[in-house]
């Protein structure tokens, strides 16, 4: 279900992220362009080469449907942050839960990480539930001060952690 992100995935990233519904809960700018997607994939591939980021395409029934990733990987203290998104037309099919499970397993088994963390909009109950199903617990809540590309100012975020 997870494959390392590659440059040819940029088209699908553009196609699926250029959607207002995703932009409403995910820290990207809308409209999302093919140039944005190409730059994003290049950044993720560079991050994999230096060990700071590991981004994966999420594949369901042979089709690209989203991305999950580890970032801010810190080998000195064995921690990382995670993010993920699923194309709108694949919401509600269990793909996010499975992708996060595989990402957690990769972090634990391949990278030997001991703790993961993430943030989610408090109003994004479905995404929060995906994380809880995979063992993440609420650590803190905070009001956004501009951390997410200047989006979601004043919105409440839930910070979640998981010990592996």
From TrEMBL:
<dbReference type="InterPro" id="IPR051531">
    <property type="entry name" value="N-acetyltransferase"/>
</dbReference>
<comment type="similarity">
    <text>Belongs to the acetyltransferase family. RimJ subfamily.</text>
</comment>
<dbReference type="Pfam" id="PF13302">
    <property type="entry name" value="Acetyltransf_3"/>
</dbReference>
<dbReference type="InterPro" id="IPR016181">
    <property type="entry name" value="Acyl_CoA_acyltransferase"/>
</dbReference>
<keyword id="KW-0808">Transferase</keyword>
<dbReference type="InterPro" id="IPR000182">
    <property type="entry name" value="GNAT_dom"/>
</dbReference>
<keyword id="KW-0012">Acyltransferase</keyword>
<feature type="domain" description="N-acetyltransferase">
    <location>
        <begin position="12"/>
        <end position="164"/>
    </location>
</feature>
<dbReference type="GO" id="GO:0016747">
    <property type="term" value="F:acyltransferase activity, transferring groups other than amino-acyl groups"/>
</dbReference>
<protein>
    <submittedName>
        <fullName>Putative ribosomal N-acetyltransferase YdaF</fullName>
        <ecNumber>2.3.1.-</ecNumber>
    </submittedName>
</protein>
């Amino acid at each position: 279900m997870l494959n390392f992100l590659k440059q040819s995935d940029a088209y699908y990233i553009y196609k699926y992220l250029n959607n207002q519904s995703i932009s409403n809960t995910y820290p990207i700018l809308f409209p999302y362009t093919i140039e944005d997607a190409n730059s994003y994939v290049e950044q993720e591939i560079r991050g994999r080469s230096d060990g700071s980021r590991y981004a994966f395409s999420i594949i369901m029934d042979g089709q690209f449907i989203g991305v999950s990733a580890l970032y801010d990987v810190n080998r000195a203290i064995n921690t990382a942050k995670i993010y993920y998104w699923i194309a709108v037309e694949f919401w509600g099919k269990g793909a996010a839960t499975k992708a996060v499970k595989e990402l957690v397993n990769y972090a634990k088994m391949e990278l030997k990480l001991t703790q993961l963390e993430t943030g989610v909009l408090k109003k994004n109950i479905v995404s929060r539930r995906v994380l809880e199903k995979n063992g993440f617990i609420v650590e803190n809540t905070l009001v956004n001060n501009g951390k997410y590309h200047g989006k979601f100012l004043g919105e409440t975020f839930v910070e979640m952690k998981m010990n592996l």
